[in-house]
Write a structure and sequence with these properties.
This protein has 329 residues and is an alpha/beta fold. The protein has helices at residues 4-9, 26-34, 49-60, 82-92, 105-113, 125-134, 157-167, 181-189, 199-202, 211-219, 242-252, 257-260, 266-275, 298-328, and strands spanning 15-17, 39-42, 67-72, 96-100, 117-122, 138-142, 172-175, 195-197, 225-228, 236-239. It is built from 14 helices and ten strands. Helix 7 links the parallel strand 6 and strand 7. Bound molecules: flavin mononucleotide (FMN). This is Nitronate monooxygenase.
């Protein structure tokens, strides 16, 4: 399935595995890339820039196809050494960087000079246009349905994707709520050039999280997420477990970040993923979990999504042109 995104990224299928904290490691990213999509390693999952370079080397041993690294730049009291991670991403030799969380402008000179393709993830048409203006090569537009940070605009993909198609000149992938071939077909019809998926890839064999997390995703429906940090204007979509609900309650009752800091600590989330204690902390998951019913390999997800999208598009075309005739027969 060839689109402007497959051409730009040098991949076979218009399917990207979005960066995922604690999840985007070598095995998962390599499996997605090897199947013809774009696998993305998450930079900040690695404790140091040198560890990141080693993680990319591990992925490289598993695939020679294009790979990406996600760098998420979020406000922090004690920020990681972002510039050093950027340098490590360049040195690692990956083809693509997925930037997220903030305007990538400060790093564009360095990245462009190094020949990396910059895929910037954002949640509004305004920010997509800004990213285009500062020179990114492509955009990933994340709708309200998504796992993680949907922004504060609350615009779901059904409107956000065509609105982005109307506004942008560069290629883009639709993100948030996509988990199967119907989603990819819809994204293409709405004007995107592919999809970015997080939740679907979180629930695959190569995803390095406990089987309990995967079983919970299969069990949960599209209704089982909550939005935390709304009053702080830093909204994040996480699983509707006891900790997520407690965070919502505390902040809704006027609490401040300091009151929930311990509940949302990254170390708790990591323990949850590693040990499968589903009430140990918060964990990102999207509404798309309602569309996830199994734990296939990541390569199988890529192949299945593409095959299903092709079939759905053919069937839709058939039913549009043949429908009235069938009705009158
Ligand atoms: C467990 C998990 C961790 C995530 N961590 C990050 C992250 O560190 N940086 C980032 O840009 N996006 C992160 N995301 C968001 C995904 O890259 C992607 O944009 C999102 O999952 C798309 O929505 P979907 O889950 O409906 O497919 C995360 C998503 C999940 C499920």
């Amino acid at each position: 399935m060839r689109t402007p995104i497959t051409d730009l990224l040098g991949i076979e299928h218009p399917v990207v595995q979005g960066g995922m904290m604690w999840v985007g490691r070598a095995e998962l990213a390599a499996a997605v890339s090897e199947a013809g999509g774009l696998g993305i390693i998450t930079a900040l999952t690695q404790p140091t820039p040198a560890d990141l370079v080693r993680e990319v080397e591990r992925a490289r041993a598993l695939t020679s196809k294009p790979l990406g690294v996600n760098l998420t730049i979020l406000p922090s009291i004690d920020p990681p050494p972002y510039a050093e991670y950027v340098r490590a991403i360049i040195d690692s030799g990956v083809e693509v960087i997925e930037t997220a969380g903030a305007n990538p402008e400060p790093f564009m000179g360095l990245l462009g000079g190094a020949g990396l393709t910059v895929l910037h993830k954002c949640t509004s048409v305004r920010h997509a246009l800004k990213a285009q203006a500062v020179g990114v090569d492509a955009v990933s537009i994340d709708g309200f349905e998504c796992a993680g940070h949907p922004g504060e605009g609350d615009v779901p993909g059904l409107v956000l994707v065509p609105a982005t198609a109307d506004a942008l000149d560069i290629p883009f992938v639709a993100s948030g709520g996509f988990a199967d071939g119907r989603g990819l077909a819809a994204a293409l019809v709405l004007g995107a050039h592919g999809v970015n998926m997080g939740t679907r890839f979180l629930c695959t064999q190569e995803s390095p999280v406990s089987d309990a997390v995967k079983a919970r995703i299969v069990e949960q429906t599209e209704r089982d997420t909550v939005l935390i940090f709304r009053p702080l204007r830093n909204t994040a979509r996480v699983a509707a477990n006891s900790v997520g609900r407690e965070v919502v309650r505390i902040l809704d009752e006027g609490g401040e970040f300091a009151d929930v800091r311990d509940l949302v600590a990254g170390a708790r989330g990591r323990r949850l993923f590693d040990e499968g204690d589903l009430e140990a902390g918060i964990w990102s998951v999207g509404m798309a979990q309602g569309l996830v019913h199994d734990v296939p390999s990541a390569g199988e997800v890529v192949r299945r999504v593409v095959a299903e999208a092709e079939a759905v598009l053919r069937d839709a075309l058939g039913s549009v042109s043949e429908g009235p005739r069938r009705a009158s027969a």
